[in-house]
Amino acid sequence: MSIQGESLPVVRAGLVGVTGYTGMELLRLIEGHPCMRLTRVTSRKEAGSPLQSVHPFLQHLETGQLVISEPDPDDLVAACDVVFLAIPHGAAMTLGATLVRKGLKVVDLSADFRIRDKALYEQWYKVEHTEPEALAEAVYGLPELYADRVSGAMLVANPGCYPTAAILGLYPALKSGLIEITDMVIDAKSGTSGAGRGANIGSLFCEVHDSFRAYNLGKHRHTPEIEQELSVVAGRSITLSFNPHLLPVSRGILTTIYTKLKNPAISQEAVREAYGKLYSDCSFVRILQGGGLPELRFVRGTMFCDISLVIDQRTGRLIILSAIDNLCRGASGQAVANANLMCGLPLETGLRLTPLAP
């Protein structure tokens, strides 16, 4: 296959876990991918059903004719070049490690390989980590920070949605030494799809519509993931305050981050220049100019992370705002980007997406 004169490989992809929102989004993205072909889809609950019966949006498409099977490691290895694991934490670690040991590339969308410290993972997720060797080999899949390592990886831990928005927002400020590493507050708001597709009273339409609420303050499981990666950037251990909220929308994350400038006299333009320099080669990060602020509607269904920077001169704070689509940039689209790198494709292949219509 060739794109603009460049010969690119055809990648056979498997998807373990087709019924959730991240699985659905992966189906949408792979269906439009010029080089990726879905060869296996699995679900214990829906095994034996044609994919289009579970996801009618695939009717009359070749992908929709695939029959859902039980997850069988040997069958996945024989049929696929890369496998996406869109299954809950705890379930992914054994299957992911097994597939990697059999020589198959894996992108895991659960949290099982994101936190490098086994004990810290077990503390926050209340699950024993039974695959410490695979955990040590996994690469954290945030392309702006780790693209080179992802390209050579067999197992990639796809970042969480909240951490993606927070880390991309804070990375240049910490990397450039613009802010203090203490007194950082992340105020994040997510659409309800971030809670998953399972039945849950708290995410029912009548519970969410026309309301807005905070949840899991001071104890959200994405906190150690954010602190882990920002500590690597800063070269020192970081502790921060992460505060999530639930928006009455289906998809998207808007994050407002409050930090303390080391030099309160620095200009807003100088801060923008520092961000622009570090993200100059990053096609999916947009630094907004002219006082523009991020909005969810401009990133919906895309890989973009829109970032705006505001200096509050009265308090000496740098306020960082970032917006992403939690299902695409924060999950499935990022997983495809990682798979692209792992399989020798350009990062952006199949991911130059325009925002979904309202």
Descriptive account of the structure:
- This protein is an alpha/beta fold.
- The protein is built from 12 helices and 15 strands.
- The strands form 3 sheets. It has a 7-stranded mixed β-sheet. It has a 6-stranded parallel β-sheet with strand order 4-3-5-6-8-7, sandwiched between helices.
- α1 (about 20-30) crosses α12 (about 330-340), α7 (about 145-150) runs parallel beside α12 and α8 (about 160-175) packs parallel to α10.
- The model has no long low-confidence stretch (mean pLDDT about 95).
The CATH topology of the largest domain is given as Rossmann fold
Measured by DSSP, the beta-strand proportion falls in 15-25%
Profile the largest sheet: 7 strands, mixed
CATH class of the largest domain: Alpha Beta
Helix- and strand-based class?
alpha/beta
CATH superfamily of the largest domain: NAD(P)-binding Rossmann-like Domain
Uncertain regions: pLDDT < 50 for 5+ in a row? none
Number of DSSP strand runs: 15
Overall mean pLDDT stands at 94
List the secondary-structure elements in sequence, H or E. Answer: EEEHEHHEHEHHEHEHEHEHEEHEEEH
Describe the strand arrangement of the main beta sheet, using strand numbers.
10-11-9-12-15-14-13
Radius of gyration: 20 Å
